[in-house]
Each structure stands twice: as C-alpha cells, then as structure tokens.
C-alpha cells in the first residue's frame, strides 16, 4: 500500500495526515458498520483530540503471558477510558445518534474505573491512598532539596571555578555528578564516574556521596512499593484482558476518525463516500501533491479511459489523480473536491503501472517488467488499473495488437482501466470498442504550451516537435526531423484525429436521436393514455344516459298499464304526460308565437307539449289524436293552433376534387419561409391522399434549411417521426417523414 501511495505521489500527503494521529499506525481504516455515519457526525462534534499514547500491542502480549505492567502502561489504559467517557459527554442524541449508540454499547469494568480514580492526570498515584508510598515520596523530596542545596554550595566554591567545565549537574549511571577538567583533585575530592570523549571527567563529590546513597535507597524502596501496587492492579485487571485488547483497538478506530476530521478542517478538505454502483464523476478535484493545481472535472462512465495528446500536457498527472481519488475515498481520507456533485466507486484493488520496471540486477527489461505487471493484473479481481505510457519497451505495431487484446480481456473481467499513450494505432484499434472512452490533452500552438485541459471523444496529437523546441533544441534539427517524418505522415495523423472527431460526433448524434426517440414514444404513450381515459369517461357517461333512458321507458310502460286498469284515467294521463315531459328537452321559442287561429277539423293543434290532429269539434269539447297514438277528449280552451312539422331537409353530398398529392418534395434553393410553406401544403395533401410516409429533400449546405425543416417537423401535430434518409435517397440532405 505504501508502494502504491508513492507511485501516486501521495507520500507527503499521508505523512502530513499521520501527524494528526494520537499514536503511530497505518493510515488504512478497517471497514465496519456505520463508519460513514460516525465520520459525518464527528465533523459536528466540538471535542479535543485524543491524548498521545504509546503502542500497547507488545504490552498486551506480555500481559497475556502473566507479565506485570508498569505504572505508565496502566496510565495509558486509564487515559483511553477517560477519553471514551469524555467523548460521550460531548454528544447529543439528536445530532449524534450513531456515535452515541456506539459509545453506549461500551461498558468499562469497575476495576479500570477504580484505577482511574486512584491516578492523577500524569502517570502517578494520588496521595492519601497509599500511606507508606506517600511517606517515601516525602522523604525523597526532602533529600533532593538538600542535595540541590549542597551542589549549589560546591559549585560556588572559588577554588573549583578554574576546573569546572560547566555549572550543570549531570546524571551519569544514575549518579549526580559534575564535569571537571584534569587536575581537579587540588580543588575538590571526588570519585571519577566516567571520562568524557574530550578528556574531561564526570566526578561524584565526596561531600554528596552519602546523601546520594540515601536518595538512591529511597528511590529503590519507592520502586518496590510501586511494583507491588502495579502487580495488585494487574491482578484486578487480568480477568478483563479481552476487554483491554478490544478497547485498545477501538481507541485506534476513534483516533482514525478524529484525525481525519481534524485533518480535513485544517486544510479545508472534503470527504466522498465511495459508492457500490460504479458511478465515477470528479468535480473540481485537485491532486494533493500539486501547488496551485488546475482542478479536474471528469465523467468516467466506460470501462477504459484512453488519454492521448501532447507531451507534458498532464496525462500522467490525470491518471494519478483518478487513481488517487479512488484510493483516498476508499480509505475515507479527505481531499480537495466538490463532494456534493462527485461520485467515486469503491474498488477493492488498485494497481498502477507507471514507473519503468527495468532492473539490471534482476535481469528484467522494460517490456518483461510490463508483462509481469499485466500478468498480475489479469489475476486480480475487482481492479482499477492505471498504465502510463503503455507503448514503452517494444515495437509499436506489435505492442498495439498485444495491448489491445490484453486490455479487452481486462474489460471482459470487469476491470476499470486508465491508460495514457502516444500510439495512434492502438488508439484507433480501441476507439472502435464501445467500452472505451477517449480523452485528448490540448496544446496551444501560438503559445507553444500545453493547456492542461482535455476534450472527450478525441485522439490527441503528441506535438513532439513543438515540445522539443520549447525545451531548447535547435530549430534546424527540428526541421530536419520534420522532413524525415514527412508530410504524408502528418496528413495521416490529421486524418486519424479527424476520424476520431467524426466518430465522436456520430456517437453523440446517435445518443441525441435515441433520447428524442424515447421522448417521442413517451409523448405518444401519454397521448394514447389520455385518449383512453377520455374514451372511458365518455363510455361511462353514455352508459349512465342509457340507464336513465331505460328507467324512464320502464316507468312509461308501467304508466300505460296503470292507465288501462285504473278508472281514474285523468290521473294516469297526467302521469304519462309528466314522464313524456321529462324525456322531452325544453326549449324556448326563438320567434314570438303566431296570432291565434280558428280551430277547424283536421287542423294541427298543440295540447300542452304534444302535437296532434283535431278529429271532431263540438260546442265545448274536442277529440284529438295525439302523435304518440293516444286519442283524448279535451276542452277547446286547452288547444292552440300549431304548425305541422316540416319534412327534414335533404342533405346534399358534394364530392370534392381529389387532392394533388406527391410522395417527394424538393425545397432546395428556396428561402426558409418559402420552404416551410411548401412543406406545409405538401404534408396537408399527403394526409388527404392517405400517405403514411413521404420524403422532404432539403440538401446539406450549411445546414440552415435542414435545421429549420427538422424544428418545424418536431412541432407538427401530424408527424409521428422523422429521420435522415438512406444514403441512396439523399442521406443527411433529406428527411423521411412518417405521418
């Protein structure tokens, strides 16, 4: 992992991160449930970082075998317990539910809590708990004060000043001593403890020897007391060995998280949660090793990203940036990026083939080393592979075919690959694969400098001659090289680049056509669904009307039967008339009623809302035959003269002349408005003639007329679809329209 970090230029970045850790460890963070939630919540916790601690793995191994810890090791576990309890007090249930649930599941043994209560904020025991130890510590402090006073008196002796090297008290072999020059014996009596490398002497003054021995004796007794106390506490903690090992591991986990959050805040860095869907989008990413870098924005949605173009144009750094983003996100390390719009996949294995693997000691050539790297890649699952300058080491033509096969095998195995190359042949071979995404580095010919920007879908030019001029080579030599290279080769490269651009344009047009097709299909489906809903509503309404009519008809039939049985004929007659009235729509006469006329036999009369014929006329009563078949006798005052119904007008069918329809319209050489008018009439006639498909020829030219015709066809309500005509009918210069 450290080798990969060095290949990606992340060593300095990781060394800076390690300074935020409470104790040295590998930067990798083991995966565990709710890790992302813990990290996000810690960003909003106001707490101090954990204390600096030693590594306790060896101490735990010794403890497991029956060893006794010193007071410093016991204090380290006390510090761990105190920090967990302190962090718990900084959390709030609503803001930090995941962290709080995590900490509440950790229950410290009572023995460790009692030990914490017995210790100060340093690896020392509190006074008042162990009286014998307190007495020894008081004696030691008193003797040390006397010793300091005695040494001060010795250092101030006038006779000793010429022989003193310095005025410090040196601790040599556990004994307080002075550093003096040769011949010191005339000024002071003392025992030589050690000779310095400059020929001077460390001596213990005889005046201080007895006091020093007493101090040494007290210190030994204190060590004995501390050893017994530590052994007692180790005995109390031994049943909780598994918990001590667990809490030591959990402290490293919290240390990892808090160090990441502190590191991110110190440099305004962001976290990106790796996703399992494979989405790969970088927005404003900056490689950590660059000063004032140009941010990278990239959408990598295919299996292989092929980067071509100018030398020193940033291809290698782009490759390292892509691999670095995956590497840092995988380990939940913060970096410069616009996190809300970026998506980075989780890829288990990352391999970089960047440096020249040639090694004379192991007899490995460049090409042999590359083959060993590819062999390892072929046997690695779930892989992100980066290959820089893939053409190194062998013949260009052979390498193109070989690497095409190797890369396509890796694609078939599900690998994600980033490759930089100058091989036009390899680029052309891979460009035909739909799983390959092209990216070309830009060069500014006027400034003779790379722009460190990239265009998707193109095969870039190397600009080797221009780069050589920029680095100071003679223009004469460059001209000779150009002559050897030849105009034909230049034209071939230009043709390759143009072919790549055209293929990209065609691919984009196909995508746009597919999108337009899908949109049109959705619109048609929505319209069909709307028509279906309207038809269902109309059918429901018709069914309701039919049901109402049948109910009224049944009521009429019942009334007729009642009329035949009942002697109260007038009541039945009124019921019948009410039903007929409900079935007959009421309408207001548009013209005023004609003046009253004299009733005559055989005349058309109106009785209430019914028309009939006057059969007989007496002095006060009349017999009328109604149009519904009934004959009734009524008073003359209830009748009014009426106009007999006219015969329905005859519908005259007039046959229109057949439309002049054609299946092909040519609007070339017309203005846009004229062409659209011609197309409007042409489609109207085609619809009348019942045509389903017609051809409109607009030509190619600058594409103005083609664009106008296509925009008009999109908005035409009777056009189902349209597309460029086949090659033999005009290709992109004509549109096949389905109506």
Can you give keywords for this protein?
elongated; alpha+beta; Ribosomal Protein S8, Chain: A, domain 1; Rossmann fold; 15% strand
Structural write-up:
- 47% of the residues lie in helices and 15% in strands.
- By secondary structure, it is of the alpha+beta class.
- Among the domains are: 134 residues, no CATH class; 205 residues, 3-Layer(aba) Sandwich (Rossmann fold), CATH 3.40.50; 81 residues, Ribosomal Protein S8, Chain: A, domain 1 (2-Layer Sandwich).
- Strands 8-9-10-7-11-12 form a 6-stranded mixed β-sheet, sandwiched between helices. A 5-stranded antiparallel β-sheet has the order 16-15-14-13-17, with no helix packed on it. A 4-stranded antiparallel β-sheet has the order 1-2-4-3.
- Helix 19 links the parallel strand 18 and strand 19.
- Helix 5 crosses helix 7, helix 8 packs antiparallel against helix 9 and helix 17 packs antiparallel against helix 18.
- It is elongated.
- The two termini are 63 Å apart.
């Amino acid at each position: 992992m450290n080798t990969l970090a060095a290949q990606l230029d992340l060593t300095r970045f990781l060394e800076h991160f390690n300074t935020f850790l409470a104790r040295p460890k590998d930067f990798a963070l083991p995966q565990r449930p709710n890790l992302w939630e813990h990290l996000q919540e810690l960003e909003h916790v106001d707490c101090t970082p954990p204390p600096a601690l030693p590594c306790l793995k060896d101490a735990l191994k010794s403890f497991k075998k029956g060893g006794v810890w010193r007071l410093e090791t016991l204090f380290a576990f006390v510090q761990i317990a105190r920090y967990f309890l302190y962090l718990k007090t900084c959390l709030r249930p609503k803001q930090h539910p995941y962290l709080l649930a995590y900490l509440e599941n950790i229950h410290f043994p009572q023995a460790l809590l009692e030990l914490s209560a017995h210790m100060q904020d340093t690896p020392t025991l509190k006074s008042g708990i162990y009286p014998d130890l307190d007495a020894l510590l008081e004696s030691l402090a008193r003797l040390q004060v006397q010793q300091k006073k005695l040494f001060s008196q010795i250092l101030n002796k006038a006779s000793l000043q010429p022989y003193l090297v310095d005025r410090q008290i040196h601790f040599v072999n556990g004994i307080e001593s002075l550093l003096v020059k040769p011949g010191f014996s005339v000024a002071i009596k003392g025992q030589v403890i050690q000779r310095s490398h400059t020929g001077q002497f460390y001596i213990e003054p005889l005046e201080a020897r007895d006091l020093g021995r007493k101090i040494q004796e007290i210190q030994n007794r204190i060590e004995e007391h501390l050893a017994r106390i530590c052994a007692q506490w180790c005995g109390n903690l031994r049943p909780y060995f598994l918990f001590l090992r667990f809490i030591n591991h959990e402290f490293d986990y919290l240390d990892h998280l808090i160090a990441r959050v502190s590191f991110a805040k110190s440099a305004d860095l962001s976290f990106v949660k790796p996703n399992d869907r494979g989405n790969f989008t970088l927005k404003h990413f900056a490689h950590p090793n660059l000063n004032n870098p140009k941010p990278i924005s990239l959408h990598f949605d295919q299996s292989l990203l092929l980067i071509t173009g100018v030398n020193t144009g940033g291809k290698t750094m782009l490759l390292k940036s892509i691999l670095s983003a995956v590497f840092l996100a995988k380990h939940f390390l913060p970096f410069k990026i616009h996190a809300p719009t970026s998506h980075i996949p989780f890829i288990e294995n990352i391999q970089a083939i960047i440096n020249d693997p040639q090694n004379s000691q192991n007899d490995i050539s460049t090409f042999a080393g590359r083959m060993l790297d590819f062999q390892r890649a072929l046997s690695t699952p779930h892989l992100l592979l980066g290959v820089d300058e893939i053409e190194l080491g062998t013949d260009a033509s052979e390498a193109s075919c070989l690497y095409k096969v190797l890369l396509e095998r890796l694609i078939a195995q599900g690998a994600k690959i980033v490759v930089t190359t100058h091989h036009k042949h390899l680029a052309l071979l891979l460009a035909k694969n739909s799983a390959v995404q092209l990216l070309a580095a830009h060069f500014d010919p006027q400034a003779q400098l790379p722009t460190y920007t990239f265009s998707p879908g193109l095969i870039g030019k190397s600009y080797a001659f221009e780069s050589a001029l920029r680095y100071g080579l003679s223009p004469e030599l460059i001209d000779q090289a150009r002559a050897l290279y030849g105009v034909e080769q230049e034209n071939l490269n230009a043709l390759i680049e143009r072919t790549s651009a055209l293929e990209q344009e065609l691919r984009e047009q196909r995508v746009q056509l597919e999108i337009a097709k899908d949109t049109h299909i959705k619109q048609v489906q929505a319209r069909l669904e709307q028509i279906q809903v309207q038809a269902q509503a109309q059918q429901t309404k018709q069914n309701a009307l039919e049901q109402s009519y049948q109910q009224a008809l049944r009521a009429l039939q019942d009334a007729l039967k009642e009329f035949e049985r009942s002697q109260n004929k007038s009541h039945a007659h009124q019921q019948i008339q009410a039903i007929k009235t409900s079935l007959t729509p009421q309408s207001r006469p548009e013209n005023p009623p004609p003046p009253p006329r004299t009733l005559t036999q055989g005349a058309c009369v109106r009785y209430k809302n019914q028309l009939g014929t006057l059969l007989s006329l007496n002095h006060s009563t009349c017999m009328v035959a109604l149009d519904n078949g009934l004959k009734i006798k009524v008073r003359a005052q209830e009748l009014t003269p009426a106009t007999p119904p006219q015969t329905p007008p005859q519908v005259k069918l007039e046959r229109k002349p057949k439309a002049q329809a054609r299946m092909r319209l040519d609007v070339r050489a017309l203005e846009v408005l004229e062409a659209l008018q011609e197309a409007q009439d042409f489609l109207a006639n085609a619809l009348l003639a019942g045509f389903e498909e017609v051809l409109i020829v607009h030509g190619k030219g600058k594409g103005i007329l083609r664009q106008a015709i296509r925009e008009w066809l999109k908005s035409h309500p009777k056009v189902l679809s349209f597309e460029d005509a086949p090659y033999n009918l005009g290709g992109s210069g004509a549109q096949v329209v389905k109506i």
